[in-house]
């Protein structure tokens, strides 16, 4: 009986079934753990209700491919983005010019739901408790286990789950983080992002699509960013004939009605947005934005870097560990790297008796890097939006030197695509 107990796998409870939660589940299973994932959504998403695109850096690509039985499957849901180009735009003349260009960016673009679906396909459906809202946790008196309470939304009953580790993958407004760090507040960045994805399948020869490809000739292999003196836009093509665009607008902090950073928009708000885009950006971009169904607003937040991301039997990953602005495309990439490093640390220190050592190493590897990246992204966001900074004048694309514009490129973020040594075994000798 004792021998059977000794062989029992340790059990992790993951609060959150987004990309951070799924990545962590995969990494822990490979480390020899059993996993339960709690997610309030009633079922696996077939499409992202807020239709967002993202880009994966080379390190994230390699990590995901190491998790797949067929690594090439990643290429079935992503497009290669070898070029990262930043452009200045003249609001009056509606012309653009190159500020900085990297032709070896090694990025890949993806639609959120496609990447989520790929990760979900590698996991056993039995480990997911859909429609379960995380409520609370408590650590046992002897600190050998953690008990989590969740509400079954369909029946309103409360269930309890006991495990060896609780992993907070519950996002930007993490209630688990809040229980340890009640004084940590999110910081509004000073601007919001209008976002949209347009499906152009069957419309390849439309004036809108031909116009956008003429204005952005490397679209399909390039991440474009346009900057004027008051903000910026991004544009990238996704798999399955879709364009993803974002427009960042400086504005006072909106009043949010619930625990989300996404705002549902009215037709009046959309019309006003269309008029502003027409005034500030090239007509081809304005037409694309105008033809996009169901655009939405993300309110942009981050928070000052944390000094601790684990406590006894609880650890933070993804946006719960490091809320960040999106300007170096860090959010998803940091979450994937968090998951991989946590999995390798738990694999290195086998068994729950060494759990503290594993979590200490995870924190020591990730915290210094994510802290630098959060602060770099914060600064870059203010530069791109023409906002004030203590060490420089507001950014004006008409006045900046070529050297000064290099900071705009993805590769300028600290530790860009640098694998920590604990991941060496994932990639062999390469």
TrEMBL record:
Taxonomic source organism: Acer negundo (Box elder)
Pfam families noted in UniProt: FAD_binding_3
Protein's recorded name: FAD-binding domain-containing protein
UniProt feature coiled coil, ranges: none
MF term (GO), any: FAD binding
InterPro entries membership: DHP_3-monooxygenase, FAD-bd, FAD/NAD-bd_sf
Domain FAD-binding positions: 310-373
């Amino acid at each position: 009986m004792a021998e059977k107990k000794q062989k029992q796998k340790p059990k992790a409870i993951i609060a959150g079934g987004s990309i951070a939660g799924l990545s962590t589940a995969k990494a822990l299973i490979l480390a020899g753990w059993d996993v339960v994932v709690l997610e309030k959504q009633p079922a696996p998403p077939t499409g992202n209700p807020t239709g967002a695109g993202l880009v994966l850096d080379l390190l994230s690509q390699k990590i995901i491919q190491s998790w797949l039985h067929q690594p090439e499957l990643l290429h079935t849901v992503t497009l290669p983005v070898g070029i990262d180009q930043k452009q200045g735009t003249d609001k009056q003349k509606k012309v653009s010019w190159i500020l900085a260009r990297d032709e070896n960016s090694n990025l890949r673009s993806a639609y959120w739901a496609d990447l989520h679906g790929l990760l979900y396909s590698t996991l056993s459906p039995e480990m997911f408790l859909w429609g379960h809202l995380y409520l609370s946790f408590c650590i046992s008196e002897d600190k050998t286990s953690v008990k989590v309470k969740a509400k079954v939304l369909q029946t309103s009953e409360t269930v309890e789950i006991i495990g060896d580790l609780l992993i907070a993958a519950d996002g930007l407004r993490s209630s688990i983080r809040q229980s340890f760090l009640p004084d940590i507040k999110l910081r509004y960045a000073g601007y919001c992002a209008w976002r949209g994805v347009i499906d152009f399948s069957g419309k390849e020869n439309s004036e809108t699509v031909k116009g956008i490809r003429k204005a952005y000739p490397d679209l399909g292999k390039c991440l474009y960013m346009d900057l004027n003196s008051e903000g910026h836009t991004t544009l990238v093509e996704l798999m399955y004939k879709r364009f993803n665009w974002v427009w960042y607008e400086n504005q006072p902090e909106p009043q949010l009605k619930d625990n989300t950073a996404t705002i549902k928009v009215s037709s009046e708000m959309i019309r006003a947005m269309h008029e502003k885009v027409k005034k500030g950006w090239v007509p081809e971009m304005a037409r694309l934005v105008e033809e996009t169904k169901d655009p939405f607003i993300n309110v942009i937040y981050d928070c000052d870097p944390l000094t601790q991301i684990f406590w006894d039997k609880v650890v933070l990953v993804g946006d719960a560990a490091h809320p960040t602005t999106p300007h170096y495309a860090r959010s998803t990439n940091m979450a994937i790297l968090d998951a991989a490093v946590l999995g390798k640390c738990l694999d290195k220190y086998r068994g729950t008796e060494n759990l503290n050592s594993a979590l200490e190493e995870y924190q020591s590897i990730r915290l210094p890097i994510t802290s630098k990246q959060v602060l770099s992204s914060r600064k870059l966001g203010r530069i791109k939006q023409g906002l004030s900074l203590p060490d420089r004048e507001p950014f004006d694309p008409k006045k900046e030197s070529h050297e000064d514009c290099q900071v705009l490129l993805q590769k300028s973020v600290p530790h860009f695509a640098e694998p920590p040594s604990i991941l060496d075994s994932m990639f062999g000798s390469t």
